Amino acid sequence: LMVGCLRAVGLPARYVSGYLETDPAPGQAKLMGADASHAWASLFVPGAGWVPFDPTNDQIPDQRYIVTAWGRDYGDVAPIKGVVFSEAAAHDLTVSVDVIRR
What we know:
The protein has 102 residues and is mainly beta. The protein has helices at 2-8, 74-77, and strands at 13-20, 38-45, 49-53, 65-71. It has a single domain (2-77), classed as C8orf32 fold, CATH 3.10.620. The protein is built from two helices and four strands, in the order H-E-E-E-E-H. A four-stranded antiparallel sheet has the order 3-2-1-4. A hairpin with a 3-residue loop joins strand 2 (38-45) and strand 3 (49-53). The longest helix is centred in the first third of the chain and has 7 residues, at 2-8.
């Protein structure tokens, strides 16, 4: 939504996908989206380049954010793409990631 809003007013923006550090440092709250893939936005600022921001957690991404891809929207960076042909009535995919600083 944020990327679309920025573009609607003529600002170049991109969708960023990745992961967040799972275990926060002592005294810090766990970020929303820390146990699964997470997405945030980047705004292009002339002279500064791409400036990331995370509207979900209301902060500027730092070393706790791990970028896996960026693109125009989710379709450009989807972690899994494909088609499933099956006799099953339904299927489910669950992904869980632990990101721990060493």
